## 1
Amino acid sequence: MRIMAQVCMVMNLDKCIGCHTCTVTCKQTWTNRPGTEYVYFNNVETKPGLGYPARYEDQEQWKGGWELDRKGRLRLKGGSRLKRLATIFYNPDLPTIDDYHDPFTYDYASLINAPAGTKSPSVSARSALTGREMTPKWGTNWEDDLAGAPGRALGDPNIEAMAEKVKMDFESVFMFYLPRICEHCLNPSCVASCPSGAMYKREEDGIVLVDQDRCRGWRFCVSGCPYKKVYFNHRTGKAEKCTLCFPRIEAGLPTICSETCVGRLRYLGLVLYDADAVTAAAATADAQDLYEAQLQVFLDPNDPAVAAEAERQGIPHDWVAAARRSPAYALIVRHRVALPLHPEFRTMPMVWYVPPLSPVADVTAAAGYNEDNPDNIFAAIDTLRIPVEYLANLFTAGRVAPVRDALRRLAMVRTVMRAHQLGTHPDVDPADVGLSDDDAEDLFRLLAIARYEDRYVVPPAHAENAGRLLAQHSMSGCSLDEEGGPGMGGAGPEPEAVPGFHLQRQESADDSVAGRDQRGRLHLVVSERPSPGPLGPATLGGAG
Amino acid sequence: MNGITGFELFWWVILPYLALATFVIGHIWRYRYDQFGWTSRSTQLQEKRWLKWGSPIFHYGTFAAIGGHVIGILIPESWTHAIGIPEVAYRWFSAGAGTLAAVLVIVGVAILAGRRLFVTRVRATTSPVDWLALILLAIVIAMGIAETVGVNLLGSGYDYRQSVALWFRGLFVGNPDVAAIAHAPLLYQVHATAAWAVIAVWPFSRLVHAWSYPVWYLWRPFVVYRSRVAAPPNEPGTSGRRWRKIGARY
């Protein structure tokens, strides 16, 4: 057993209002550069819809992810290694820019400098690739809120199998939002596809990154990722992808998409897993069993044997402790309300989703919700506006039972908590859906109250060794910061509290000079001392 | 080395050595200071219909042409004589296989040059050094095809293994036969000169991607893990990726 820790995200789709704040702040942080105009590390899709790039979920077309060969062994769907090396001059499975969109901008100066007159000046779109005028025909939010859905949404690969059941007329149409980032998979096919070995999974926190210095632009990662979350920078000729905001994660902060999420629907926490069991689990014969198989790979941090073995294998004590408090582990394993996105791609994705329940309540309300008979809501789950089969195609390779169970638990939490609030006694038994009273309270705390501290349990990175290395180069802090020296060490004065900025305070308290104190922590990126305050994040670009 | 003018010595000995030195030192410099710029610079994202045919045909044709040069230039004629291959047979093989390679290269390069010139999205990505390398390659290819098809297949033939090859191999053992290349047909002279120019430009262009052909992918584990380590500080005087004047602020 090889125990590894993974920073895992869970998104509660019930709460996503499709405001795209995550997309905007992510873009401002990471991809507001020439060459990455069309790149969205985070994007929010309206489902049903084609997604971004168009129809990315259809792996018969794009050949992303893994498949099983005749003997049941795992292999890349894009072909063998030998085939890749022989066809390296042209990648048949690579989307073109038109599958994303020709990035466009406007000649704003001509508006500002337009001469005074009676007519309002206007400009047309200009391609960022060529500088020429163009007509936008498709884009990342082209189908926002079902725009154009009557003609297009039935092309959603998740819907094609159930097309006769789904109608796009006004009475029966349904939709919800699906925010997507890189899945930081346990069995990443992009990493396996990269012939240069430039992509890697970090041992400490499982974040999947591209080494920009080793990438040679062969582009197999782009086609290898079934979620199409590796992008090709057309200016630098290198691949780029969601970094899970690793400089923030290392500092114990949530990613920027999580931090700025208006609906507070994102959760970040550690999940411990057995790295030796990943390949076998990903090779599970029946794709519909992959969800359960992935659950079996996760380890229970509350199990003393697991915790002891994790620490013996070098996972820091406070990380194991953080894994026990992990909201991701709670939602995925303990309460089983979160589900993986397209487990059938066999990459063991690590961004999970709590399926949307809200429309159920609407349906039952319309059907005359009976407070005395909350079971009504369970009956409605099978007839709800968002077909359970559609959710199952997204989250469980088509198996309905886990989705239905998750929705029933969510409905149960509402019923139980409503009774608590009203001081009545619910005549339903949470045990029917596998919940205890405590579980219902816990889910209520996590999903409804959703305090910042409960949503994000991100232990700061340990960089003691890195600290020693940097200290040798006198780069970690002030050289006068010696015992008895003019700087006298220490963390400096308490910074003023800034509402809404939640840097973990104990950090600066026990963060003596990292180079000297082996137990002290050094944030690789936030120089040597976290400085909470409005300017705190500005130091992130520092000594990385 | 009698009867050689100073110009010939400069052109056929000193310039090739300068090109070789630029090639070696340029690659060391680029590898150390510009890992970030070391890429194949693919334009498949912008255009894939033409690339689908042009790129594989061009690359495989080029491999065939390079193989032909190894046989024709690096292997001495005496060796092929020794194993009983007469000059006429060799030349017919050279002209035949060479013509096949030439057709591949010319079709491939026509498609690639066409999309680079006429597909706006692709043309917009092309840097000046790309144009320089392309023009030099075009000269090398045009002259090479003229030699193979025009001289050896359709014309009277020219035994470059008794002349150009002697000079070329001689460069690597310090004893180049300058007279041999100086009296070769103009086609061969232009071909050789442009080829040296390509060698000199190579380390500064996207051609460096040739050395990154990832053979080791065949036996590497699928999933690569890396431990998070602190990067060593940049070398003094550089920002890590770009060459800076020593002592300049960074």
## 2
Amino acid sequence: MKKEELPQDKSALEAMTRELLYVKNQDGKYTTGLSTGWEVKKDALDNAWDDIHERVEKAREDVRNGIKSPVYYFMELKLMDFPVLSAYTGFWGFTIKRHMKPRIFEKLSDRKLGKYAKAFEISIEELKNFKG
Amino acid sequence: MEKEFKHIQAAHCENGATTSLLRYHGLDFITEPLAFGMGSGIFYLHIPFLTISNGPAITYRSMPGWIFNRTCRALGIGVKHKKFSDEIVAQKYLDDILLKGAPVGCQVGVFNLPYFPPEYRFHFNAHNLIVFGKEDGQYLISDPVMETVTSLSEEDMLKVRFAKGPLAPKGHIYFPETVGDVSTEMIKKGIQAGIKRSVREMLYIPGSIGGVSGIKYTSGQIRKWRDKLGPRKAGLYLAQIVRMQEEIGTGGGGFRYIYAAFLEQAANYINQEKLMEVSEDFTRSGDLWRESAIQMGRIYKGRINNEQKDFEVCADLLEEISAIEKQAFIKLKKMKL
């Protein structure tokens, strides 16, 4: 890619920095150039966030309809998956899966709820009282 | 004597951390492309049947930490690495080193990195930054992908150093401990070793999922996704590929341009004109990686109006890239360095 072809599109990264890329100068030698963003990447990122928002909404509905416990909702909200949540709480993946059942969630001790609350950076009350 | 730390912006965080740390210790010749090439940062692996954040599991780079380690080893530099199980111990260790005045590299998670835009904060734990001092309880930070320096509070620093999940940093700190004189001969040997290692890793990983054959494998998968996953999910998969491939200097096009720049710089140390020819091959490959991203973008942006033939175009591009890079690495293998 030539230096003058470096895209200067809008992107979320703009708030933080321009990114550096290796590009060719007019003599065909490598140099570096700065870019504010590239539309193709912005679309990919937007796409990922659309998907995340949909997943979070779906999780909210599942909690509201009594299909899933708040653990599931906050896991999605905090962009976690089982390995990440498992690492933050110390629970095994299958234990977390159990805790996502509303009837089992209701009987969880405050100590266990506390681990989730800490991982999600919310209070135990917020976790317990989330109704969707 | 107090040496001053100089912030250097890089395309890729680990290259940048390596370059800044070595420059601080007086290795003025080191550049990001040289670190990337000597450290054999270029790599490819598509792990089948595994998904990460609901997308294909592809890595474009060698294991975190390897670029720094390999480059330092090639230049005869002693390296200190330390991980911690206790946060208080980790903080004290960092503070004590900073009192001595030398900058250190830290592996961090980006989910809680306050100066990253929220849109970029995923649970990705292999980001690298340099801490070069502490003033009024704030750590002075040189983040290699940023234009300027920044800072982090003690609390935020602990959070990002102890992010959890895959590739958890566990407070990982690293820095050059003993730096001797580096001869031109050592640089030359380092370049040769780096190229050889990349040839091995890109051409001769057994099976069909690593190196240049891995790129072909991904191409084959893309041809099947639309039927297997449906248009929407297949589009999401492509978007994830583009994100991993092109984000902040990593992966596809970005890495090829750095590698092409590396070969160009290598020609300053090694008298071999064909290096420039292969550098051109990687520039071409980089251009094609970007073209494939544009093509994938057309699909995920349209979302519903994607057709099998559009996926075929992406797949064809990756196949072409695989072939070009295969030839390029074969040329490097045969080259007398």
## 3
Amino acid sequence: MTTATATIPHGVHHHGPEKGLMRWIKTTNHKDIGSLYMWFAFAMLLIGGALAMGIRAELLQPGMQLMEPQFFNQLTTMHGLIMVFGAIMPAFVGLGNWLIPMMIGAPDMALPRMNNWSFWILPFAGGILLSTFFMEGGAPAFGWTFYAPLSTTFAPDSTDFFIFAVHLLGFSSIMGAINIIATVLNMRAPEMKLMDMPLFVWTWLITSFLLIGAMPVLAGVVTMMLTDRNFGTAFFDATGGGDPVMFQHIFWFFGHPEVYIMILPAFGITSHIIPTFARKPLFGYSSMVYATASIAFLSYIVWAHHMFLTGMPVAGGLYFMYATMLIAVPTGVKVFNWVATMWRGSMTFEAPMLWTLSFVFLFTIGGFSGLMLGIAPADIQYHDTYFVVAHFHYVLVTGALWAIIAATLYWLPKWTGKMYNESLAKIHFWWAVISVNILFFPQHFLGLAGMPRRIPDYSLQFADFNLISSIGGFAFGASFFLLTYIVVDCIRNGKPVSARPWKGAKGLEWTLDAKAPYHSFNTPPSRALIEAESQHSA
Amino acid sequence: MKRLTTLTSALVALVSTNVFAEYGLNMTEGVTSVSRNIYDLHMMVFWVCVVIAVVVFGTMFYSIFAHRQSKGHQAANFHESTKVELLWTTIPILILVSMAIPASKALIDLEDTSKADMTIKITAHQWKWQYDYPKENISFISNLAQSSKDSIKGDKKPEHYLLEVDNRLVLPVDTSIRFLVTSNDVIHNWWVPDFGVKQDANPGFINDAWAKIDKIGTYRGQCAELCGKDHGFMPIVVDVVSKEDYAKWVAKQQSAQAAVAASANKIWSKSELMAKGESVYNTNCAACHQKNGLGLPPVFPPVKDSKIVNGPASEHIKIVLHGKAAMPAFKILNDVDLAAVITYERVAFENTGSIVQPADVKSAR
């Protein structure tokens, strides 16, 4: 593609952004849209976090103190939905928008108007979802997995609004994914081969294919719910010839790829930050690409390991157990490669590196519990207990969210041209990493000792660990005030930085001005520059 | 060196499974061959993970400690090795295969329900369990115990808070029991950790599981699939008794059920119906319609001043028997209980409905 060099007819990029509020509403600029995504995700993270505080407050001690059980179920449901669809996914799309054009030597995204639309759907979808709290009968209360028939025949009226919101979120994600695929394949600097691409670009490209495959399935399942609820069909109702277990098959056919949608970009981020602060090229670049692709492929064929107790035949149980265990192999390769990148490096421990190292450590713990959960017979005792809750919070909070925070701090100097306050960022890191473990580690013990998940009240033997977990939860929740301050303080008062604030950093984005220009690359980078900035060049 | 060994053995003792079990840190070993298989598998995988963690994290932390700029360490430049990549792809595969073999054996074993001596049918309802002994012709419903219900908002919790029921499931020891699990409304899950039995109860389908319990005792569990408002309040309590005691219990249950059936033929007085009706109401109806009859509108309408309750008895009986929208069908209750609870609803809460006799319910079925 040579369009990047062609003169832009109206010379729009010379003018820079429009002034005022309309800039944000009308913008087609990948950086503006990336920022919108990030701020939206952050707002949703705080809302979802506030719901989690409500959950931990009720679970602080046995007995119902603060709310009715039905409201507790609304909190767990909305917490899950908002964190998955409102916080983690938009944050990664925001990072992709900001970083991908800069990393592949492009001026902007391939489909800028669609980019605007795919963002601006989100606040409406999120608004509709949150508005269900104020409806008669309350918000959805059937868990973020919304198993039928609890979510069809037995659900509150607001469920139809939930279905509409999920459809909108799905549109937005699919458009975002199409845009990223189109950008990576068409807007890449002509001299950049696929195997030259930085890993964040690779992981997002693969994630986009997961999104395109998975989100329509989600749309399908909520549409079937909609017709079951309102138009007399019986997809999930045995009395009409349907099957409630079929709901779970369709849901998890979306749901398992979804899990990797939320973690593959995090792997990419980690593969940027570790080489920078170890001052060594990434170990095993090509095996990282192949491992990511294998994980993506496997993610499509393991869905029923969420359903070992639905009455699955032995052959099914065996197959899904083997396929699930297999995921440990490429995931292991990634962890080994990261450790090998550190090995005999010259490491420093700035905040992004601290977040990334703790990501490798804590995500791997989540991986171990995931391996244990994959053992079908053992899953009998783990299934739907707090062991599962601990597992997926280790991979999503100290996994996905950790990588998002690491990426934010790592690229914030490029986005703003300014440096955040390093000592505050270190304090925030230690505060968060200690409290998050107080919050989630005891939940392993609760689950093994037999506490089911999604219960608003528990018997007395679970009281101690719930108390500890809640205290950790409040401390962890409070740490986000400091994170907000650190980011805002950087934007307003940060010290100006050079174009490459991290000495060991490689990548085309660091060849741009200290504060990246409104349009990234007006002339594509040369082969020599691409090779010099490649992750796997010596 | 000797000190080191003492220290190590003390550490091993500390993390040994017994200590875990006492403090409720680890999975229960349970009282069936299935639960013990699961436990062994769990510990095996756990220790494999520990060993891998020690190796990987050990390397990582050594590197973090030794290869740092502040110590003047110069960065090497290697970044590729196909040999190493192959090595750390192959070794995990071998470890996984060695885990998959015992896991497959355990899975095949626990799925085999052909060797059962007796069958229990478990039907889940929002939010209680119904137990049927098809051969013995016994059937009853098991609800959260009143002592737990009364202390949900209070400070004083009874022993086994939320893990006590009004009618316990009673099973004989050393007998292969097949559980047939199904549901009447949404998906529930019947879980008793000590048996290693956790099975989804799907509406319209029947799943099975089996257990041969080695030890007499009382075992507790809970519903393990989100099933609506009172998901956290539908526990399971099983009394496992000797075979002789089990035979006695069966005889006693059968005569009690015969007595209930007989009493359905007599005419009950209003005060008898009201007394029985109140306890049936508090057990079965109060979760939604509330103890004071005011309900939780708009989802759960009040009983007080209700048109149905103050109207003709036949409509009222029909709704209780067959359900309506979110209201489940209560035909699982016997005629006496139904007559009593319907009478209670029609007379209590300042309502002005007529009383209902067991015979009325019987003819309406």
